[in-house]
Specification:
single chain, alpha+beta, Methylamine Dehydrogenase, Chain H, 2 domains, four-stranded antiparallel β-sheet, 4 helices, about 15% helix, elongated, WDR64 protein, repeat, WD-EF-hand_domain
Length: about 350
Amino acid sequence: VLELLDFKNALEQFQKLVDKVITQKTKERSGLSTEDDDEIAYDKFYTTTRALFGPAVKDHNIQAFFRKIVNKVDGSPDWLEIFGCFIGESDGLSSQLKESTVFLVSEKQQITDSVVKRKDVIKGIVKVPHLDFTVTASQKGVITIFDSQCRVYGIYAEMDTAWITGCDFLPQLKYVVAVTESTIIVWNYKSEENKNNCFVIKPMKNCPLCVSTVTMSDHLAKDSILMGDDKGYVHLLTMTSDNFILKQYKAEKGSQFHVLDSETFTMVKRKLHDDWVGKVRYISALKRFGSCSSDSISSFVLDDIKRLEDNLPVKEFSVPKGVNAFTYCGKAKVIVTGG
């Protein structure tokens, strides 16, 4: 606590120092003279900053920070920059792994459990904050849950020939959902019976390429997912606990799955793109869903999920060669796309 109080006080003193420099440079540009005692040259700025933060700051960061203040007094840089949070390649990886008196950056941890075979790749990874674990799905069918210590909580190896293209977690039903090129897999990871804990939903007319949970229902036994396919359609499929009642199971011979007919599920779809759908996501903060595609005309769509059920125009924009990925930042209230 004492260290935090000292750091907060140092920040306050540093901000006063920056304000003095800005005031000084503003007066100079206005043609007003400043008294010698109040003048803060680089040497004084460097000495004061070093006294406030000690070895936590680098010489070149202090120099760069001072240069930014002098050149642009109307928009001073953020205090984080004094600690090199926006460092370039010159510092390298080794400096990022060292402990700082201001920021502690832990080294990356390697998971030693061999959960993915050779020539296999991770196709989906999702964090489940309220349960404090992470779900991963590999292309060849290995679905894994890691706890906060990166230990394997549960694992299921999917035996179908189709590749997995994405995964997510159903918060109400407490199931893991994954999509393959021809099916939807629902895994009840809590089941103690490994032979009766996985369901496959098929047939699928098009090839699902991505999946995302829709977190807008408080119904304890109901979840919805968004899926994008290779024909430009975005699907909304609703699952309830009734869909997984034992009497509806149809086990295929030699299969570890319980097969469920896709026609028994509530599903709506709408063609929003003229090419593959690369990613779908429901953004709870905006109460909107987003989908992107390599389509140059309908590259990114952001609208109410009800638009999937009607034919009203959707909010979209175009990017040459399309959009491959997007994300939403709630703090900055911006959506960033990558093409």
